[in-house]
Amino acid sequence: MLNSKPFILFLKYVIPSMLGFMAISSASIIDGYFIGNYVGSVSLAAINVSLPMFNILFGFALMFAVGSSVITSKLLGESNKEEASNVFSKAFYVIVLISVSLNLLLYLNLEYILDLLNVKDELRVETLKYLPIILKFMPFLMIGITIDYFVKVDESPNLSLLALALSSVVNIVLDYTFIVKFDWGISGAAYATGISQMCILLVLLPHFFLKKGSLKLIKPKGDLQCIFNALKNGSSEFINQSSVGITILIFNYILLKTFGPLGIASFTIIGYFIAISTMASFAVSNSLQAIISKNYGAQYFDRMKSFLKLGLVSILGIEILLTLFVLITPESLINIFIKDSDIKTKEITIEFISFAWPTFIFSGLNMLSSSYLTAIQKPLYSGLVAIMRSFIFPITFIFLLPFIFGNVGIFIAVSCAEIVTFIFALRFFMQTRPSVLAKFI
User: Fold this and answer.
1) Helices (H), 298-378
2) What letter would DSSP give residue 334?
3) pLDDT per residue as tens digits for the range 353-374
4) pTM of the model as a whole
5) Does 174 score more than 90 pLDDT?
6) How many structural domains is the chain composed of?
7) Is residue 386 a part of any domain in this protein?
């Protein structure tokens, strides 16, 4: 990370990361395909009802993963391997404890939670076929994703790709087997997803018991101050994910009130398109995070500039291509997820796409900014970008814009949130760009 040519190192990390995250996204999309075509739109909506809980749990995992891996990467950049392994080990044991406790708490209070969300009738029935199963497997994903960050920090991006790709393949094969062949409905999708999540952990964990890398899973030493520092530094990821969960809840409420269950199904389909865009940008940003934090520790500011330029060009290129693809062929893409008879759902989704497309481009730029700010350990700025794009502005606009533009206001709320956030993110970046950091050394 400190010596290779920037472009070569960028490709070495970004390509495996992108392929891995796109594999995860494609697995989710395949879920949508099988559920939409073999189960129905209400089941598709049930997945969207479950998303807020996933976002919060995933946010906890990312908070530990990002915050502690950045600290570990900086320590490796300073050639302090022993303390790097110590931080990694503490993060691992803490996420194991928290993931099991949180999922158990949610599992035991599921009926009460659905009452609070006002999930009733057929939608409630379908949700209860899906969510309890997922919660049983969720600790494996939370631990696996945390370890995945440390594998990349330990300079093994191809192993990360293998784990994520294998998980995707397993999910697709089991989706077909459980939903189409065994006719398990939405429960089959839950089991397929859960089992595939276990594969990530099973592939990655042995790495830390071998002699190939610098990080080892050891008996932790000292207090938990580094964990508190990691929580602070990774807080933007938790804020981002949990805020997205709350935002989805509110969007579901508005869409259910305005369009009925078909509105939520439409929002779910849009979510799949946004997921592809998000994962592509996240893969680039995520890969750069470990590289930039290590070069920041070594005070190689010119290299940091090079990596940021590569990330910016990549994200803009990817997002522009994806946007054009979605705008040119919206009906064909929507037909992947719903039956021909679901005409109303299709109409809502097409209208949604026609207004929501700026989300793709500006969300990528905001993620790059947030990842950079986390990498240089500026959690306040990173957290502000995260909460603005995932909570403050989406919630503000989803309530405000419909009064001005009617239903169109619902469709443009997310795009407006990303655009306004970008203005703030650009300002934060300019205040902390590598050339400015170099002046303080």
Assistant:
1) 301-328, 330-334, 343-356, 358-375
2) H
3) 888 888 888 988 998 998 898 8
4) 0.74
5) yes
6) 1
7) yes
> Is 1 a member of any domain?
no
Model confidence at 105: pLDDT above 90: yes
List the Cα angle 384/277/369 in 5-degree steps: 30
Alpha-carbon span 56 to 234, nearest angstrom: 14
What is the DSSP secondary structure assignment for residue 260, as one 8-state letter?
A: -
- Encoding tokens for residue 260? 């009925």
Please check whether residue 402 is in contact with residue 251, taking contact to mean a CB–CB distance below 8 angstroms.
no
pLDDT tens by residue, 13-55: 888 777 777 766 666 677 878 888 888 778 878 887 887 888 7
Please check the confidence at residue 5 and state whether its pLDDT lies above 80. Answer: yes
What is the pLDDT, as a whole number, of residue 164?
A: 83
Which residue in 436, 300, 305 sits closest to 1, CA to CA?
A: 300
Question: In the structure encoding, which two tokens stand for residue 411, read together?
Answer: 């469709």
Amino acid at the residue 389? R
Asked, for residue 123, whether it belongs to a domain, the answer is yes
> Residue 164's domain spans which residues?
6-438
Angle between helices 157-175 and 121-153 (to 10 degrees): 160
Q: Is the pLDDT of residue 337 over 80?
A: no
CA-CA-CA-CA dihedral for 362, 254, 344, 340, to nearest 10: 60
Other Cβ atoms less than 10 A from the Cβ of 410: the count is 24
Instruction: Give the phi and the psi of residue 144 in degrees, each rounded to 5.
Output: -65, -45
